[in-house]
Amino acid sequence: MPPTTAELIEDQTFGFLVDRRTFSLIGVAEPLEMARKKVREALTDQTDESRVDDVVLVTDELVANAIRHAGGPVSLNLDFYEKGVTVGVVDRGTDTTVIPAAPVCFLADLDDAGLGAISLDSLPEDGQGLFLVAQFAIAWGVERTTFGKVVTAAFDLAGSTA
After folding, report:
1. How far apart are CA 89 and CA 143, in angstroms?
2. CA–CA dist 70, 1 (Å, integer)
3. Residue 71's CB: how many other CB atoms inside 10 A?
4. pLDDT value at 16 more than 50
5. Per-residue pLDDT tens over the stretch 90-116
6. Which helix (H) or strand (E) holds 78?
7. Is this structure's pTM higher than 0.85?
8. Considering only CA atoms, which of 93, 83, 100 is closest in space to residue 141?
């Protein structure tokens, strides 16, 4: 069973919840653009620019996945804690079993010789997004909601992890 948002942050030193913002993405012509803008605006003066870029990248991936695989995003949720933030993208998809508990990058297990033997044309153009989420967020998870699911990523605001 994937972790809930509460479980994502229970081992982190985020402190208390200090702000919650929710943005509807239903019927938005450019949900990716809106989500990036809202996250960037919300994190201005909260952390360094490289960390803002990390959170925007992950948000972009979560919204793109909702568009590709779940009929589009419903909302963007930002929960601000004393020392961290969680980004949740709600969609109408109900199948949480198709989301791997630990995203895998098929390049991760290759040594230098194996990496050198790969043709750039053979690399997949998609399917690596959750690997990025796992690399940039300190934790992430998916949970069912009343009408779909929410995929949530947690970030400390101390600086970039990548």
Report:
1. 11
2. 20
3. 12
4. yes
5. 999 987 776 655 554 555 555 566 555
6. strand 73-81
7. no
8. 100
Q: Which amino acid is at 27?
A: G
pLDDT value of position 33: 97
Q: What are the structure tokens assigned to 45, written together?
A: 């003066």
DSSP state of 70: S
pLDDT tens column, 38-72: 999 999 988 999 999 999 999 999 999 999 989 89
Q: Return the closest-CA partner of residue 138 out of 107, 160, 115, 114.
A: 160
157, 85 contact by CB (below 8 A): yes
Q: Amino acid identity of 85?
A: V
Per-residue tokens: 127:
């399917």
The 8-class DSSP code of residue 3 comes to P
Which residues, at least 6 apart from 50, have a Cβ–Cβ distance to it below 8 Å?
159, 160
Instruction: Give bridge partners of residue 77 from the DSSP assignment.
Output: 22, 88
CA distances from 107 to 27, 110, 136, 151 (A): 37, 6, 17, 24
